[in-house]
Amino acid sequence: MNYKKLFICVLIPVLFGSIIGLFVNTDSYDIIIKPVLSPPNWLFSIIWTVLYVLMGISSYFIYRDDGFDSEAFGVYKLQLFVNLMWSIIFFLFKFYLVSFVWILILDLLVIYMIIKFYKVNKIASYLQIPYFLWILFASYLSFGVYLLN
Fold first, then answer.
1. How far is Cα 146 from Cα 149, in angstroms, rounded to an integer?
2. Which residues contact 19 (CB under 8 A, 6 or more apart)?
3. What is the pLDDT of residues 5-45, one digit of tens each?
4. What is the rounded CA–CA span in Å between residue 56 and residue 73?
5. Nearest-CA neighbor of 117 among 63, 48, 51, 52?
6. pLDDT-based confidence at 4, cuts 50/70/90?
7. Rounded Cα–Cα distance for residues 41 and 136 (Å)
8. Would you state the pLDDT for residue 80?
9. CB under 8 Å to 133, separation ≥6 — which residues?
10. What's the average model confidence in pLDDT over 132-137?
11. DSSP-assigned states of every residue in the chain
12. Do residues 63 and 133 lie in contact, with contact meaning Cβ atoms separated by under 8 Å?
């Protein structure tokens, strides 16, 4: 295991997620009407940090076993971009319907990524399951915010 490359693979989603977090004002989430089962605002940063770390570890296994230019790694990069853009659409622009449609696209991309990862490295695909479950929940939250606001 190349720990330097693993560290870089983990750092990339954590760093990009943190940068996006600095540019969007999540305080607006406190004042909008939220659906039932909405977790407290402080929990989101903890959950996303854990998920980004798992994402980075998973991407390391794909990078190691299939390469940076592989189709599986390409799907990973695309879904990471879609993931990060969701925060901008939702928090910065407050386009709640667009953000809901956007997260549905992310749901499909993550399913596709898990399938691609499974063909390369089963552990890498399993590490994405918590992420997939969370974005399904986030899809519910996004739809609820759209309906209620």
1. 6
2. none
3. 999 999 999 999 999 988 887 778 888 999 999 999 889 99
4. 11
5. 63
6. very high
7. 18
8. 98
9. none
10. 98
11. --HHHHHHHHHHHHHHHHHHHHHS-TTHHHHS---TTPPPHHHHHHHHHHHHHHHHHHHHHHHHHH-TTSHHHHHHHHHHHHHHHHHIIIIIS--HHHHHHHHHHHHHHHHHHHHHHHHH-HHHHHTTHHHHHHHHHHHHHHHHHHHH-
12. no
List the structure tokens of 96.
């709640």
In this predicted structure, what is the pLDDT of residue 42?
87
The two structure tokens encoding residue 47? 């959950």
Q: What pLDDT sits at residue 93?
A: 94
State both tokens at 142.
Answer: 């996004």
In tens, the pLDDT along 58-98 reads: 999 999 999 889 999 999 999 999 999 999 999 999 999 99
